Amino acid sequence: MIEEEKILRESIGRRNGFRVPDGYFGQLTVSVMAQLPEREARRVKLNSWLYAAASVAVAVLMGVSCYLYQQPDDEMVADSYFEQAADYTMIDNTDIYACLSDD
Amino acid sequence: MAHEKDPKAQREAFERIVDEYGEKLYWQVRRIVLSHDDANDVVQTVFMKAWTGLDNFNQDAKLSTWLYRIAINESLDFMRRKKLQHVSMDGQETGVASQLMADHYFDGTETEALLQEAIASLPDVQRTVFNLRYFEEMKYSQMSEIMKTSEGSLKASYHIAVKKISEFFKRRD
Fold first, then answer.
1. Which residues of A touch B155 (CB under 8 A)?
2. Domain annotation covers residue A65
3. Which one of A42, A98, B31, B60 is most buried, counting C-beta atoms within 10 A?
4. Cβ-based neighbour number of residue B38 at 10 Å
């Protein structure tokens, strides 16, 4: 502590003499809060890049889902193809069974 | 995509902040603006600015530091706007000590009033540093965070302030 400061503290002290009205601090919070404006519910937008990435991900998932839904069943393809082939060659079922039994 | 922050929860949290820091900030403001009515006005402004500036508050920083900084800046701005008469260090009569002795909310001695007059005459930084160090015994490290000034500069400001105030009283003796 510098000498001048020591003299100040010893001769004057640290009492500042300021006073407040009775009960002032008891009602300070109430008076402060009463004058504060209401805050609106804040809607926070995500970063635009994140929003774009999320949109792309949703679109990809939807595309994949549609693609999988529209894929015909393998067995159905095989049966359909076989029927068409049989009609084209004009072979009926009796001939087919006979051919298979020869093996 | 968006999410909401609950305004009611924010208000309740802020009320706890006012409870905790209200009195500390008041005395910091009062030591600068001197009058109770002015201090009350400035404190209301401080918390209003804190409330509206909450979104800008850096959560990594200390809340007390942030609030103190708002309080000091608002107090000094208030004084500049009000343009109180300051004591000139050549001993000319000023109004500060007289105003305080007539103030209903000041019950200090004439010496204490003169001390306030001497402090009020200091430049803003020296006045603030003197108040924080002499009356609150705040560490220079904390002061440095509030005022965004190096500890070395703050120590120098304090020493200069103390010497000026000592000389003020010597001239009056």
1. none
2. yes
3. B31
4. 18
- For residues B22 and B34, give the distance between their C-alpha atoms in angstroms, rounded to a whole number: 17
Inter-chain contact B7–A54, Cβ cutoff 8 Å? no
pLDDT tens-digit series, residues A11-40: 888 888 999 999 999 999 999 999 999 877
Choose which CATH entry (3.40.50.620, 1.10.10.10, 1.20.1070.10, 3.30.499.10) describes domain B90-173: 1.10.10.10
What is the per-residue burial (b if ≥16 Cβ within 10 Å, else e) of A69-80? eeeeeeeeeeee
Per-residue DSSP letter, B131: I
Residues B34-62 pLDDT 10s:
999 999 999 999 999 999 998 888 777 79
Q: Beta-strand (E) ranges in B20-155?
A: none
Q: Are A12 and B115 in contact (CB < 8 Å)?
A: yes
- Decide if B108 and A15 are in contact by the 8 Å CB cutoff: yes
B162–A36 C-beta distance less than 8 A: no
Encoding tokens for residue B35? 């009058």
